[in-house]
Amino acid sequence: MVREAIDVEIPPFDLAGTLTLPTRGSGIVLFAHGSGSGRFSPRNRHVARGLQTAGLGTLLFDLLTEPESMIRANVFDIALLADRLLAATYYIRTRDDTAAARIGYFGASTGAGAALVAAARGQDDVSAVVSRGGRPDLAGGSLPKVRAATLLIVGSLDHGVIELNEEAYAKLGCEKRLEIVPGAGHLFEEPGTLDQVIYLARDWFAEHLQ
User: Fold this and answer.
1) What is the mean pLDDT of the chain?
2) pTM for the structure as a whole
């Protein structure tokens, strides 16, 4: 694996990120963090390492600048977060070493809603989406437009969010799957539950990106 600190250019500023590429060409998974977290999210970094061991590239980056992240409304601005994710997708497409890679999105919490909106808007660029404890319902009217194969993962203890995922799932017209991880809460902090997310996401991305 080759790891590189990068800046995703979004004039008039850049968003810091970490791009990790396998030694041989493969798919790349872009992470859309939720609840104002960024590229140092311990849960998403753990998931990223799991995907990397399967030969997938990853891009962990900050969807918001530090001043923007201090404004709570920005965390729930799905359109803004989707714009940033599409900007990062464009960045991947403009690099010589990643231009031909198949792209997937991994979204958590509000980031899942942004990932689905971005997938609906960038239909030709995105092959797969995985949501972990996400709010896909926040994608609203974009859900029926998503073409990327979509996997929704929810914890069995995440009451309320399960129902929101079921409602969003019904509106998706793409290849799709809903997985409920036994004994997992919203953050998948229970022993072994985040590893279950890794197994599910790894297999989904391997099937659709490699």
Assistant:
1) 92
2) 0.95
